[in-house]
Each structure stands twice: as C-alpha cells, then as structure tokens.
Amino acid sequence: MPFTQSRELRTHYELSGGEGPVLMFCNSLGTDFSMWDAQAERLGRDFRILRYDARGQGQSSVTADDFTMAPTIAQLGRDVVDLLDTLKLERVHFCGLSMGGMIGIWLGVNAPLRLHRLILCNTAARIGSAEMWNARIATVRKDGMKPVAAAVIERWFTAEFRAAFPERVAKAQTMLESAPPAGYAACCAAIRDMDQRETVVRIKTPTLILYGAQDRVTPPQDAEFLQERIPGSVKVELNAAHLSNVEQPDAFTDEVSSFLCK
C-alpha cells in the first residue's frame, strides 16, 4: 500500500477502482481503512475509491504523544486537503463515518470547493462530554487499547449482529485493539474539543446523512440536528448501531450509490 509524506505526517492510503469520479472514505475512531472493504468492492465498479488512515490511525504516523500536541478536527480536515493536493485531485465525493463524518462537516464548512457531494454517517456536530473523553484518554494512555475495546464493540454493533456474525465482530475488535494508543488518545482529544453546532449551517454541498436506528454513540437525534441545519440535506435510517456500513453493508452501499448517481 502506498504512503504520502506531507510535512510531519506520513499517510497510508489506497486509490483503486474504476475510471469514474473519486469517492473518498474516511474512517471512524480506532479503525483503519479496511472498514470500507465492502463498499470499495461494490462501488469501485463506478468510482475511483480513495481510502486513507487518518493521522494517528491505522498505518498513518502518530504525530502526537501528549495532550499539548493533540490534533484538532481542523487539523484532521487540513490533512484531507493536503492528501488531495498531493494526489492532484481537485474535487471528490466524501463519505465519512463517526470521526470521519466530523472531518466531513469541517470540509463542508471550510473546503467546499474540494467536494462534489458529502455523505455524513453515524456522526454528530458534537459528541460526549469532556469528562467522558478525558476518562477514556486516561485509560488508553495508562493501560492501552484492550480495556476500552470490549465496551466500544458493544456500542459499535447491535446485540443481534454480534450474535449472528461473531467473526465480523472479532475482526473489528482485533482492529480496535491494534490501534496505536497514542494516536487513539490524540484523536479522542480532537473529538472532545470539537463543537461544530454553530458552523454546520454553512454547508451548501449536497449532503446525505446516514444514521443507525440503534446507534447509542450518535443517536438518531444527532442526525435530525444535522438534517435540520444543512440546507437541502436528506437523512436515511438504517437498522444498525454505530458502524452501519459494516452491520448493514448492502443497504449502506445502496444508499450511497443512489445518492451519488442521482
């Protein structure tokens, strides 16, 4: 898999698929870009698929090892612009889930000329409290990823999915447990400090909001908030928890394809 180097950041990415427009995927916290395998396989017939690991995630470099050096959502958004510049891609469709969706909101507000269409999945303009994120950061920095992984997996997938597809759940848990603790903690701090509730109204890019009916991390009211404030946006509910693209891959991909091919 190729890497790019931009200043201090080494970014792991993959550009594959057909000859159509570029569709860029951005991961959730604690994952790598393999979380989009099902979407890349199907949508790669009609689009060039760009997947990457955000700063501190997957195989991209960890550039923060303490609170004072933690990135912001704005920094993570600028990393996307830098990657597009390096790859000489002027505009893309952008699909981000959870933290990836937060980055998508920032791009919609601050870099709209780089976007054709925007897909925000299982995300929100603000998530959780500082106390919650600080507690998770402290745990990860002290004891690594395993103590938080089991609880996170329960929020990522419904009980029905965990019972029916234990091998998929185990794969996701292994991915989460393998996440770089310093990078995970730094991105937790970025989410902790993010509040895009006032700026989200400035998004003018055509926007699809996908959300899980059983998502406890970013519940349906978060999708409702976004839909009410992003002019012309549409929202679609999936029968899933937080990682809706993994739990409902066919329905998720169908909705993305339908939105982009209108």
Notes on the structure:
This protein is an alpha/beta fold and 262 residues long. The chain has one domain (3-260): Alpha/Beta hydrolase fold, catalytic domain (Rossmann fold), CATH 3.40.50. Helix content is 44%, strand content 18%. It is built from 11 helices and 8 strands. The protein has helices at residues 37-43, 73-86, 99-110, 130-143, 146-156, 159-164, 166-177, 181-192, 220-229, 244-247, 249-260; strands at residues 3-6, 9-17, 22-26, 48-52, 92-97, 115-121, 207-212, 234-238. Strands 1-2-4-3-5-6-7-8 form an 8-stranded mixed β-sheet, with helices on both faces. A hairpin with a 2-residue loop joins strand 1 and strand 2. The longest helix has 14 residues, at 73-86. The radius of gyration is 17 Å and the shape is globular.
Which architecture would the CATH scheme give at its second level?
3-Layer(aba) Sandwich
Full CATH superfamily name: Alpha/Beta hydrolase fold, catalytic domain
**Largest beta-sheet details:** 8 strands, mixed
- What is the number of helical segments per DSSP (H or I, 4+ residues)? 11
* Quaternary status: single chain
CATH class: Alpha Beta
Total count of strands = 8
Order of helices and strands: EEEHEHEHEHHHHHEHEHH
C-alpha Rg, in Å? 17 Å
Output mean pLDDT: 95
Strand fraction:
15-25%
Structural class: alpha/beta
**How many domains comprise the coordinates?**
1
Helix fraction, binned, reads 40-55%
How far the N terminus sits from the C terminus, by CA atoms, comes to 32 Å
Low-confidence stretches: none
- Strand order, main sheet: write it out: 1-2-4-3-5-6-7-8
The CATH topology turns out to be Rossmann fold
Q: What overall geometry do the principal axes of the alpha carbons give? A: globular
